[in-house]
Amino acid sequence: MRAEAHLHIGRAKGGKENCISLRRLPNYQVEYAGTVVLSDVRFAVQPSGLKRFREEGQKNVHAFVRGSLVDSTTNRTVPSDTLVVREAYYNPAVTDTFVDKETRHPLSTARAAWLVGTKVYYIP
Predict the structure, then answer these.
(1) How far apart are CA 41 and CA 111, in angstroms?
(2) Nearest in space to 38 (alpha carbons), one of 10, 58, 66
(3) What pTM, to 2 d.p., does this model score?
(4) Average pLDDT estimate for 87-98
(5) Where are the domains of the chain?
(6) pLDDT (tens digit, 9 = 90+) per residue, 32-60?
């Protein structure tokens, strides 16, 4: 099943555990989770939403991690220590796309991604 997820920072700041918005496609059913695992991932930033954020300074949902839904749970579980994972980062005030948090190289795809709380981990 195809899905897209984004970090719901407002929920996180409000102290809610399940701060990832998950939309199952094609019916766009929305639910909240603490952890979402996707495969065949695409990191997507909608240019018009990014432009609107920078012009108005008001947050809007315009960045997603899209892929095939593997699992979602209310528990926060990090990827296994045996996997080689990297952390992805997106901040519309600083970056135009998702980037590798350490190298700052832009990201467009990944084999898999874990959204855990307010963090995104990926397998290149």
Answers:
(1) 6
(2) 66
(3) 0.85
(4) 94
(5) 2-123
(6) 888 899 999 999 999 999 999 899 988 88
| One-letter amino acid of 105 | H
Contact present, 21 and 5 (Cβ < 8 Å):
yes
CB 89, CB 115: distance < 8 Å = no
| CB-based contact 51:39 (threshold 8 Å) | no
For residue 32, what are the β-bridge partners? 21
Nearest to 83 by CA among 124, 34, 40: 124
Alpha-carbon distances, residue 81 vs 55, 84, 86, 103, 116 (angstroms): 41, 8, 12, 21, 15
Q: Is 15 left (phi over 0), alpha (psi -120 to 50) or beta?
A: left
Residue 68 has pLDDT above 90, yes or no: yes
Q: Do residues 120 and 87 make contact, with C-beta atoms less than 8 angstroms apart? A: yes
pLDDT at 107: 98
Across 21-25, 53-57, 104-108, which has the greatest mean pLDDT? Answer: 104-108
DSSP result, 14-64: TT-S--EEEEETTTTEEEEESEEEEEEEEEEE-HHHHHHHHHH------EE
